[in-house]
TrEMBL record:
Gene3D superfamilies: Guanylate Kinase phosphate binding domain, P-loop containing nucleotide triphosphate hydrolases. Keywords: ATP-binding, Kinase, Nucleotide-binding, Transferase. SUPFAM superfamilies: P-loop containing nucleoside triphosphate hydrolases. This is guanylate kinase. Transmembrane segments: none annotated. GO terms for molecular function: ATP binding; GMP kinase activity. PANTHER family: GUANYLATE KINASE, GUANYLATE KINASE-RELATED. InterPro entries: GK/Ca_channel_bsu, Guanylate_kin-like_dom, Guanylate_kinase, Guanylate_kinase_CS, P-loop_NTPase. NCBIfam families: guanyl_kin. Its EC number is 2.7.4.8. It comes from Ficus carica (Common fig). The keyword Repeat does not apply.
Length: 280
């Protein structure tokens, strides 16, 4: 049956690719010779198999109607399955592991994905863009957002506030977009309490401790004291991997591989029979 399908598909392709109008596409000799030229060498031996003649459009339609009539119902062209539910993907991991770099690339390669821009009271780093990397606000403005219950979660991270605006998530999910949230480990724990299993939690790790430290040093954004705090914290944070659904190693010079892995995770989640249904 499958082979029959493959044969008819090949013939269909040939009909579409018909090169000269003068050729009679139903002539078995011509089709046979064309098929032979299309087949890979490994399949050349199969060319002696009898060919099933091409079914033309009218015949196919007739057969389809006959099947409908036998079944007593019309074949629907509606999708057999609903669209997958929008996902919330929580990306977390130790400081300097490459969360920002990974998300930046991921949103470039996957247009249907929205990165929820976090509000923060920390200073803007060189190269960062207001509203793209973070919403940079003063401490007072941030506390105003907390009071108005505008944040899904917030935390004081290395002396600066960081929080996720609820409205952005609602807006993009209502449009059917998947959303990515970037949080530190503390934030991921809070979000797990809020979402339970209804969101996807991804832990980003470096391939080794020394590579993580080198990356943090290379970023040149922290003082020696601040580096010490981040590195010591990273050791503790690694213990939280077990609370995540997936772990992605972002190895030195292999950012693209890490991005591909996250894409595969999203694809697999979209193909799940039991979808995660999240409400914010
Ligand atoms: N796979 C990689 N190979 C080499 N360098 C990388 C890789 N991924 C990220 N980096 C670099 O490592 C540094 C830290 O990355 P990034 O700022 O994205 O980390 P982060 O996890 O978002 O940190 P933080 O939580 O402190 O904001 C950056 O200079 C970034 O360009």
């Amino acid at each position: 049956m499958l082979r029959r399908f493959l044969c008819t598909s090949a013939l269909k392709t040939l009909t579409l690719l018909r090169p000269k109008p003068s050729l009679n596409p139903t002539s078995p000799i011509q089709i046979h010779s064309k098929l032979k030229s299309l087949r890979p060498f490994s399949q050349m031996a199969d060319s002696r198999r009898p060919l099933i003649p091409a079914v033309d459009r009218a015949e196919r339609l007739e057969l389809l109607r006959a099947l409908e009539s036998s079944l007593g119902s019309v074949f629907s062209s509606e999708p057999l399955l609903p669209n997958p539910s929008p996902l919330i993907i929580v990306v977390s991991g130790p400081s300097g592991v490459g969360k920002d770099a990974l998300i930046r690339k991921l949103t470039e390669t996957r247009p249907g994905l929205h990165f929820v821009v976090t509000a923060t009271s920390r200073e803007m780093r060189p190269g960062e863009v207001q509203g793209k990397d973070y919403f940079f606000v003063s401490k007072e403005e941030f506390l105003g957002m907390v009071e108005r219950d505008e944040l899904l979660e917030y935390a004081l991270v290395y002396g600066d506030y960081k929080g996720i605006p609820k409205q952005q998530i609602r807006e993009y999910m209502a449009r059917g977009c998947d959303v990515v949230l970037r949080v530190d480990i503390q934030g991921a724990q809070t979000l797990r309490r809020i979402f339970g299993q209804s969101a996807v939690f991804v832990f980003v790790a470096a391939e080794s401790e020394v590579k993580l430290v080198e990356r943090l040093i290379g970023r040149k954004t922290e003082s020696r004291e601040a580096l010490l705090v981040r590195v010591a914290t990273a050791r503790e944070e690694m213990k939280h991997v077990k609370n995540f659904d997936y772990v992605v190693v972002n190895a030195e010079g292999k950012l693209d591989n890490a991005v591909k892995l996250v894409e595969s995770i999203i694809d697999a989640e979209k193909a799940k029979v039991r979808q995660r249904n999240v409400v914010v």
